[in-house]
Write a structure and sequence with these properties.
The chain is of the alpha+beta class and 303 residues long. It has a single domain, classed as (Glycosyl)asparaginase (Glutamine Phosphoribosylpyrophosphate, subunit 1, domain 1, 4-Layer Sandwich), CATH 3.60.20. The strands form 2 sheets. The protein has an 8-stranded mixed sheet with strand order 4-3-2-6-5-1-11-12. A hairpin with a 3-residue loop joins strand 7 and strand 8.
Length: 303
Amino acid sequence: MHAIAIHGGAGTLSSAQLTPESDHAYRAALEGAVRAGFEVLGRGGSSLDAVTVAVQMLEDDPLFNAGRGAVLSASGLHELDASIMDGRDLRAGAVTGVRHVRNPIVLARWVMERSPHVMLAGDGAEEFALEQGLEPVPNSHFTTERRQRELDLLLRGEKIAGAEALMGTVGAVALDERGNLAAATSTGGMTGKKWGRVGDSPVIGAGTYAANDCCAVSATGHGEWFIRAVVAHEIASLVRYRGLDVAQAADQVVLRQLARMGGSGGVVAVGRDGRIAMPFNSEGMLRAAMDSRGLLVTGLLKD
């Protein structure tokens, strides 16, 4: 049994905003990434490789708020975050505030595999990337006309201008044939963010968590709430200690606990039995899933 689920962000995108062209573009991008990850699993590859490949594809797609296409901070720069976790041994790696790394998820994995640390930030993460041979890219590599326009509107006082940026954080969870789970998440954060703000995406236990005895989770939404609720680990704990299946646990946290707090967003999760959950309490969540039982699904809104 093998399975993978991915997300491309959760937020305020409504049916009124979704044109036939954008619907097709989002679904095509999501299906391409989930198929790429599933292909890794299908040829006997690891869940860790599958989530890396899927997230890397989404980072390279300007439709999403991660890698190329990431939102701009108040200073007019891109500051990127990512994390990854291996369910076999609870190893994890994360980076935050990087500005010149083409694929932050790759650097997060290298932090896990090539350093004694879990999280590296800013200049230190950039220095580590150079030491590991990653070729830097100019910060302008990540800029798109859409994201520049969002920032310009926000700085002029249009507070809703950056709302759609929540639709874009990317993530993946996977179960491979050997029963190993993995999770990965990558984001550009929030449009117009200040003071080195960090959300949940690079925070292990909040935006990303994986453990072979329970499940793998990648979260998306308003990061401050996900950090406060420790969403990814809370879901894992309900599976581990309460004996809930992954769908029950994810619904309990996202649709009840998080919603009661006022937090908006969702998760993709996969259990050690291969069951997939993709709940969200926002208007929409870009998502896709595949498994070896024949499942293939993409979704944007509450359909």
